[in-house]
Amino acid sequence: MEKVDVEKAMNELDSWVSKRGNGEYVPKNFVSPAFSFYGIPANFGIQQVRAEIKDFAHVIADQSYNHNTSALEVGLGYFGSTHFLWRQLFDKVTSIEKSHDRVRSFGENSRDFYNKWIADDGKSSFLIGASNDVSTLKKAYDSLTGGVDMLFIDGDHRYEGVMADWLLYNPLVGKGGIVAFHDANASVDSCGVPDFLEDLENGHIDGKNYELSKIIKSEDAGIAYYIKE
Ligand SMILES: C[S@@+](CC[C@H](N)C(=O)[O-])C[C@H]1O[C@@H](n2cnc3c(N)ncnc32)[C@H](O)[C@@H]1O
Fold first, then answer.
1. How many distinct structural domains can be found in the chain?
2. Structural domain for 194, as ranges
């Protein structure tokens, strides 16, 4: 595939995010509400800090693949804004999302953005269901027979949720592909990502020590990744 233009992709994403939710990225100093909070947190247009997702887009652009590229994401989110970005950076994108409504909304929001229906253009695929449901798993392995070049885990943030997603979908990532986790630096107790990543680094998951690179430019989000050998 052609080398991707990160600036152009980020400009597109800025335009998309400005029309979703409160129109903003997550601010660097935002801290997720505690488990006991029963209010409605701000409806950011993307669940990402701009500086972090931009640096991660550069990591993707720096990998050179001489084949059509493919990404798999667990967790589409309210507005599918990371799916929108992966569409700019990969030839094909699959998102696994348990909420049917969020998938429908992405179809409608992208129609409004492009003035045409693009959710059936062959570039985007959506697997509706829990990522750890056996039928979702089978659909993913049936449809991604060539593997993927990037896995972005951003669904169930409990320790066991991240662990399951990594165990189930990391085998789909080919050599030289990227395995990434969002919320590597989350502080809220209910988020198990940092603890899972520590165990992955220490060899406590499958006996191997994974060397993680971390993009952390915020108080409470962050992206960790490794390139598969
Ligand atoms: C934090 S949001 C994703 C945000 C999105 N990647 C972004 O940056 O805009 C997490 C999403 O994962 C979905 N989700 C949570 N657990 C899941 C699971 N086990 N399988 C599929 N989707 C899941 C939720 O419904 C939610 O839409």
1. 1
2. 6-26+42-227
Burial class (CB within 10 angstroms; exposed 0-12, middle 13-18, buried 19+) of 139: middle
Query: Is residue 131 lining ligand 1, measured as CB closer than 6 Å?
Result: yes
Phi, psi of 171 (to 5 degrees): -60, -20
- Identify which of 97, 132, 135, 157 to mutate to test ligand 1's pocket (most ligand atoms within 8 A of the CB): 97
* pLDDT tens-place string over residues 35-72: 677 888 889 999 999 999 999 999 999 998 889 999 99
pLDDT confidence tier of residue 15, bands split at 50, 70 and 90: very high
Whole-model pTM: value is 0.97
**Domain annotation covers residue 114:** yes
| Amino acid in position 28 | K
